[in-house]
Specification:
By secondary structure, the protein is an all-alpha fold. The chain has helices spanning 2-24, 26-33, 39-61, 63-67, 71-97, 100-107, 110-121, 128-147, 154-180, 186-207, 217-242, 247-253, 256-269, 275-292. Helix 2 (26-33) packs antiparallel against helix 11.
Length: 307
């Protein structure tokens, strides 16, 4: 019996590994697309293509869930999509300005902002471990910022700030998701959020006068891969794993994304992080782990990756 349990656990863990690998590819694929396309176009294409897959599926298979939603819940779904659009607009733009390592580590700090927002708006008590984790992560953020400060790296510091804004925005997306997921299953929820985010990003790109056509074929290939790998395969694998593995294991495992993305950036983009940046990133990840660990036996923490 024990051997069978272990055997059934292997494909579940493999699904989690596939999810981490898929989301880790996002930063490098964005960098490839940025060779010709503006960041807003990349973000809009990623969400529009993902929406083209999940929206019809949700409408065909989950119409009954949509009919049960109140008007206020539809509004919350739209607000969730707005937060997601702001997340991708700021985070993808940050990759123009700073390193993959800095951008992905900073944007992964959203669980800390969720904890702060839950205290401010939901009156949830912040556990001592969360306070310690916040302090450690803030110290790490200061170290990463220090490694990117100075005249030569002024743009990098702006990129770090945009990545942090992306983390704050995706925290709003997760908080609303907590509420709506009590009424909607995964597919219909992400269909509303992705669809709204795609519409917002398309409107932003049009307002900025950016073009949607005229790129070389390989840029459209990067758009498709961004939608398929980090957006659909990556997020779907995490959601699937949450149904089969402890939430804490999945939550901590998602922090493998910054590590995987940094390794890919080193191998593909030849980005070598400095010792100071590695130290700061390590502090941020350690702070997230400390803050996110369950406070008591049986309690669960659920982290979501924004990439």
């Amino acid at each position: 019996m024990e051997a069978n349990a272990r055997g059934s656990r292997v494909p579940r863990l493999l699904g989690l590994v596939i999810g981490i690998a898929a989301v880790s590819s996002g930063s490098v694929l964005v960098r490839f697309a940025q060779a010709e396309a503006p960041s807003l176009i990349i973000a809009a294409a990623r969400l529009a293509l993902a929406s083209a897959v999940v929206v019809p599926l949700a409408w065909v298979a989950h119409r009954r869930e949509y009919r049960a939603l109140a008007r206020s819940e539809w509004a919350l779904g739209a607000l969730s999509g707005l937060f997601l659009a702001l997340h991708f607009a700021t985070w993808i733009t940050s990759l123009e300005l700073t390193t993959v390592a800095s951008s992905v580590v900073l944007v992964s700090s959203s669980p800390l902002f969720v904890a702060i927002a839950a205290r401010l708006f939901l009156k949830e008590r912040i556990r001592p471990a969360v306070g310690v984790g916040l302090a450690v992560a803030i110290a790490g953020g200061v170290v990463v910022g220090a490694s990117d400060s100075g005249g030569v790296a002024r743009d990098a510091l702006l990129g770090d700030g945009l990545a942090l804004l992306g983390s704050v925005a995706v925290a709003g997306y997760w908080l609303i998701g907590r509420r709506l997921r009590t009424k909607l299953s995964v597919v219909p929820y992400v269909a509303v959020a992705y669809g709204t985010a795609a519409a917002v990003l398309l409107a932003m790109a049009m307002s900025a006068g950016q073009r949607f056509g005229g790129y070389s074929p390989r840029i459209y290939l990067w758009f498709v891969l961004l939608a398929l790998l980090p957006q659909l395969l990556g997020h779907s694998s995490f959601n699937w794993a949450l149904a089969h593995l402890p939430a804490t294991l999945v939550a901590i495992a998602t922090l493998g994304e910054p590590i995987g993305a940094s390794i890919l950036a080193y191998a593909v983009l030849n980005e070598v992080p400095s010792a100071l940046k590695i130290a700061g990133a390590s502090l941020i990840l350690a702070g997230i782990v400390v803050a996110s660990w369950p406070g008591r036996p049986g309690s669960e923490w659920r982290a979501e990756s924004g990439e």
